[in-house]
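[Archive record]
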Amino acid sequence: MDVFFGSARLEKLLLSRKQSTREYGAENAKLIKRRLDNLHIARNLEQVRNLPGGLHELHGDRAGTLAIRLKGGLRLIITPADEPPPRKPDGGLDSNTIVAVVVIAVEDYHD
């Protein structure tokens, strides 16, 4: 799958082990790299759903975005790269046809 980043700053932060360790801690830096590798290897978003970290759609003001678990409440937040994103008849994202995503944040949205 193709993986893009919402900004050059975010890309630099997440792809640099040193910077991501400083920002999110060593364990999360390792998990971020692993989750990004998983996204790159997957053929579509559906394949990511069953990998460690899981994948779930967000709702409310975050509708249209998805989250992958990291450690300590942090999540890797992604969105489909296609605009508009492919949808199933029930309105949910069609993860079988999503083959490119944009990483938009790493955050704990539970606070």
In short: The chain has one domain: 2-107. Helices lie at 8-15, 17-24, 26-41, 45-48.
